[in-house]
Structures are given as C-alpha cells and as structure tokens.
Amino acid sequence: MGRQPCCDKLGVKKGPWTTEEDKKLINFILTNGQCCWRAVPKLAGLRRCGKSCRLRWTNYLRPDLKRGLLTEAEEQLVIDLHARLGNRWSKIASRLPGRTDNEIKNHWNTHIKKKLLKIGIDPVTHEPLNKQVSSQGSSSAAENLPPKASNDDVLNSDENSSTSPAENSSSYEDSILMDSICSDESIINSLWLDETLLNDALWDIAPNNADNINNKDMGLPTWEDNCAWLLECQDFGIHDFGINCFSEIELNALQQTIGVDKKGH
DNA sequence: AACCCCCTCAACCGCTTTGGT
DNA sequence: AACCAAAGCGGTTGAGGGGGT
Fold first, then answer.
1. SUPFAM superfamilies attached here (predicted)?
2. Å from A1 (CA) to C21 (C1')?
3. At what angle do helices A172-183 and A185-203 cross, to 10 degrees?
4. Coil, strand or helix: which one is A87?
5. Is residue A214 in some structural domain?
6. Residue A18 CA to nucleotide B18 C1', Å?
7. Residue of A199, A252, A225 whose CA lies nearest to A63
8. Largest Cα–Cα distance of chain A, in whole Å?
9. Which nucleotides of B are covered by protein (CB under 7 A)?
10. How many distinct structural domains can be found in chain A?
11. Residues close to nucleic acid strand C (C-beta < 7 A)
12. Are the CB atoms for A24 and A46 separated by under 8 Å?
C-alpha cells in the first residue's frame, strides 16, 4: 500500500526545466497569479507535476528573488537564525527576503557549515568544538542541558533577534530561564504570532498588493523592480540569462503587468 | 588531452501540516 | 471529529562544471 504519487506519473516530465517550460510557467503565473498548483501544469500547458511547477517558481523564476551568493551580512544572519531555529530553512528564509529555503539550505551545507567547522564551531550546536569534546568527556551537568538546536527547542529564543550566536551559547542558568519561558505557551504563541505577521508582510507582494511599499522601505526590491529584472535581461542580452524565450508580445504583457516604464529606473 | 575527483545547486521524494468539507 | 486533498517543508540525489593530476 504505497503512498499515492503526488501526480500522475505517466507523461509527467522530470529533470531540468527548459527555457520553453520556464516561459510557459512565467506567462501563466504573471497572467493568472499563483493558484492551485495542481491545476497549473494543465492550464499552462506543461507536462510537469504541480509540485515541480511550484518549486521551479518559488526557487528560481519568482521575480522577487535576489540573485547571486549570499552577502556577508546575510550569511551572518543565517548563522544567527540557525542557532535559534535549527534546520527550519523556510523560517530562516522568511527572514531573508529574496532568498529561498532551498538556496539557504544549499548554502548552509556547502559553505557555512565548512566555515564554522574551520573556525572550530559545531554547525549543529553552534558550540565551540573543543568545548563539546571536553564536556562529552564528563557526565556532568552539561549533559543535562537541553540540546541546543533541536526542533522543539527552536521555539526557545526565537525573536530575541538581537542576540548573537555567541551570546546564545549561554550558561546553564540561561538554559533554565529559557526552559521556563518555553514552557509558557502563551509567550511562545505570541512570539510566533509576531513572526507570522512579519512573514506575511514580507512575502505578500503580489502585483496588486498595496503593501508593496514595504519592501522599498526596507531597501528591498519590489515586485515591480524584480519583474523589471526579467525585462532588463533583454537589455543585457537575455540569452546569457537563459531566458531567451520571451516574444515581444510577452515582454509587453510583462510590462503591462508591472505597470512601470523601465526607462524610469 | 584525458581522466578523475570533488563541489555545487536544481530538482526530486516522501513526510508533515494545513484547510476544507 | 474524521477524513481527504493540496500545499509546504526538509532531506537527499545526481547532473554538470571546475580543478587537479
């Protein structure tokens, strides 16, 4: 009794997306918005499963994505958040506008993890490695400490975002204090409620959303800016970006969608 | 030039969570 | 409350590229 596949495997294409497929998906989303991913492939004329379409859009095609490597500041923020949230990549990503969970997860596994190990910090616990070795040797109070970044502990200190990971590797007393805070569900709930509101504000940047202004306030690219990015690819030699598939009509449609004159930038 | 190895990251898989009935 | 479908999430995989020999 295997689990039912997420989609009809027959005739469903897998593997890397072609520019033609990207074009179809971008066209569809920009015209119709994000709705019912399961229906997207059919409506957009794609031989993909809805899940694959959603992933492609959120991780690669979405106009509000930043491109390129994470900056030093972003990297530090990821480390800081990881110390408190653990492997909750989507939560971490929600604090880094324009970055995806997949991107951050990959960057963590390929870069940050190694960096931390190099400077002698355990990427899982965020404790100094030698400290861990010494504490493992004895069955002292250290063993009774709650695991630092386990999924449940994550709730502990979230939102205390002014604290650095170093400050976070606190004393036993601090752990006890944290535990007492964590055991108070009302506090935790209100903390997470705050975060939810923040997240919504960050990502709710559909074309018609008035909250769009928020991103500008934060110095972040707006939906328009990023749609403009797609258009500017044409200016710089869109072929180099692998998006050589927009017809003039489609580019016009894009411009209409974002409602800006790119010459205004 | 040819081969091998390692690294990166896009994409997939399957489990969990959420929302609707 | 129970069930189901859809969406979300995190772990894992594998193709492709770059560097070393």
1. Homeodomain-like (SSF46689)
2. 51
3. 80
4. coil
5. no
6. 32
7. A225
8. 70
9. 7-15
10. 2
11. A 6, 15-16, 35-38, 50-51, 54-55, 87-91, 101-102, 105-106, 109
12. yes
pLDDT tens for each residue of A205-237: 333 333 333 444 444 444 545 554 454 443 333
pTM of the model: 0.63
Q: Report how far apart, in Å, the C-alpha atoms of A198 and of each of A101, A159, A214, A215 are.
A: 17, 11, 11, 12
Find the range with the poorest average confidence among A21-30, A102-111, A240-249. A240-249
Domain that holds residue A233: 19-66+222-264
Query: What whole-number distance in Å separates Cα of residue A151 and Cα of residue A17?
Result: 33
Of the candidates A74, A114, A81, A117, the one whose C-alpha atom is nearest the C-alpha of residue A97 is: A74
| Assigned token pair, A8 | 């009809």
Q: Please check the confidence at residue A120 and state whether its pLDDT lies above 70.
A: yes
Distance A6 CA to B14 C1' (A): 10
pLDDT digits (tens, 9 = 90+) for A22-37: 888 988 888 888 878 8
Q: Which nucleotides of C are covered by protein (CB under 7 A)?
A: 5-12, 15-16
